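Our working data are protein records whose layout never changes between entries. Instead of coordinates, the fold is spelled out as a row of discrete tokens. Here is such a record, shown just as it appears in the course material:
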Amino acid sequence: MGWEPWTGCYSASDGCTYCYYYGPYSKRCGQNTITRADDSEFYKPLATVYMPRKKITKQVIESGKSVGVCFATDFFIAEADEWRKEAWGIMKQRSDLTFAFLTKRIDRFLVSLPDDWGDGYDNVEIGCTVENQEMADYRLPLYVSYPIKKKWIVCSPLLSHIDLSPYLQGMDCVNVHGESGRDARECDYDWVLDIRDQCIQAGIPFRFGGTGSHFRQDGVLRNVNPYIQKRTAREMNINTGVSSEEETE
């Protein structure tokens, strides 16, 4: 289940260059005006529907569901600072749901943070994405320092070797993905395996989610069809500490 309280985005770093959603070859290329969703979407987690046959009213998003937030934008984008205050309130009100999102703007975490955040809301999970060492060394020290109940690092798109070892303590998982698309930059299997080794040493679950379009393995560069990138990564059988259900998501 997804929730998009606002839409539109623009580049935050090199990893955004060929964004699958707003990049140069996407249908939404150029849609970089940040727009608040209409009320039906903005208040979607609070919406109810009447079931005439059963004569009951129930939540549109049923209790216990996981909700992916802002996958078409960034939750911490500056233009949404005022809207974000209300979005936090909606998440708190629906404490029976789990809200999860990724961000490339973790440096704006403290902006519009609710006064009652404390050590974090139990039902909010925030992942931080990094694509190279420069972004890892900028974003992850901040990320590690912030009070968030569940944290995971996403190396997507993985564009170079990255040493994550200084930042793995307290992480719940690390996910790695290559870049997809016509002009995708290559992902080297050696980079993937090195991050896996770092996770094993730190006792952190590791998941290889996709090879990307241009995947180098044993010195050979392969072009991988986008429809099999996830399956190809899974068949390498290098995930650690994740359930079989998580592997097939």
Q: What stands out?
A: The two ends are 13 Å apart (CA to CA). The chain has two domains: 1-128, 156-249. The chain has six helices and 14 strands.
